[in-house]
């Protein structure tokens, strides 16, 4: 596991640990201006046979948190996972240009659902809170030239769906619907604030 410490002023006696190696989740959590450490858990993220996407997301979010709990037995641990689907087809991170091109051709003119699971585990009490936040993204009917232009400029190869909504990828999107736009990026902050409050952590 790779560990990174992000320092600010303490707000709780328990450490807050983000169980993720995602730079996007770290940046989102930093918005709350609370002290936390980030550690990247190593788990098997393969979906189970016939598992619903929201069940995959919640199972992996909890697995990430519990993997970190073995290292931090007295902490509040945040686990999160996201599964993107187009109908019955799951959209994984493309990782390269060819896969991203294929994904964008597939999603253009269609709606993709992003299921983002959020888990907060108190490793000292084993109290676990879980939410799955769906977010709906309708893509524009863009052409192949626009796909190439976009991928050349932003290279979103580590984003499921191959578009960064917080960047130039917004130009590919017709509309977005959901309770928390942060969920689409990877960490539902509105739900997290509620979860932290249940553990006695006040953000402001």
Task: Describe the overall structure.
With 204 residues, this protein is α+β, with helices and mostly antiparallel strands. Helix content is 30%, strand content 30%. The protein has helices spanning 23-30, 53-69, 97-107, 144-154, 181-185, 189-198, and strands at residues 2-6, 15-19, 36-40, 75-86, 89-91, 111-122, 127-139, 173-178. Strands 1, 2, 3, 4, 5, 6, 7 and 8 form an eight-stranded mixed beta sheet that branches. Helix 3 (97-107) crosses helix 4. The longest helix is centred in the first third of the chain and has 17 residues, at 53-69. Residues 5-11 have low confidence and may be disordered.
What percentage of residues falls in helices of 4 or more residues?
25-40%
Q: Count of helical segments? A: 6
Largest sheet: 8 strands, mixed
Q: What is the end-to-end distance?
A: 31 Å
Shape: elongated
Stretches with pLDDT under 50, minimum 5 residues = 5-11
Mean pLDDT: 93
SSE order: EEHEHEEHEEHEHH
Secondary structural class: alpha+beta
Rg over alpha carbons: 17 Å
What is the tally of beta strands?
8
**Beta-strand percentage?**
25-35%
Could you list some keywords that capture this structure?
single chain; 204 residues; alpha+beta; eight-stranded mixed β-sheet; 6 helices; 8 strands
Furnish the topology, listing elements before pairings.
Blueprint lengths: L1 E5 L8 E5 L3 H8 L5 E5 L12 H17 L5 E12 L2 E3 L5 H11 L3 E12 L4 E13 L4 H11 L18 E6 L2 H5 L3 H10 L6
Parallel strand pairs: 2-3, 2-4
Antiparallel strand pairs: 1-3, 4-5, 4-6, 6-7, 7-8
Helix pairs in contact: 3-4
């Amino acid at each position: 596991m790779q560990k990174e410490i992000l320092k600010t002023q303490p707000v709780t006696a328990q450490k807050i640990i983000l169980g993720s190696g995602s730079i996007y989740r770290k940046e989102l959590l930093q918005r709350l201006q609370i002290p936390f450490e980030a550690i990247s858990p190593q788990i098997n993220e393969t979906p189970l046979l016939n598992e619903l996407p929201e069940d995959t997301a919640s199972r992996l979010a909890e697995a990430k948190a519990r993997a970190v709990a073995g290292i931090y037995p007295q902490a509040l641990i945040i686990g999160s996972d996201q599964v993107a689907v187009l109908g019955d087809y799951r959209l994984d991170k493309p990782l390269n240009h060819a896969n991203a091109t294929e994904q964008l051709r597939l999603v253009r003119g269609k709606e993709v659902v992003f299921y983002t699971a959020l888990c907060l585990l108190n490793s000292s009490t084993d109290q676990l809170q879980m939410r799955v936040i769906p977010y709906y993204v309708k893509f524009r009917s863009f052409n192949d030239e626009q796909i190439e232009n976009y991928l050349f400029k932003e290279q979103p190869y580590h984003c499921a769906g191959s578009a960064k909504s917080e960047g130039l990828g917004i130009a590919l999107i017709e509309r977005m619907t959901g309770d928390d736009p942060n969920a689409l990026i990877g960490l539902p902050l509105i739900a997290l604030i509620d979860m932290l409050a249940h553990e006695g952590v006040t953000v402001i």
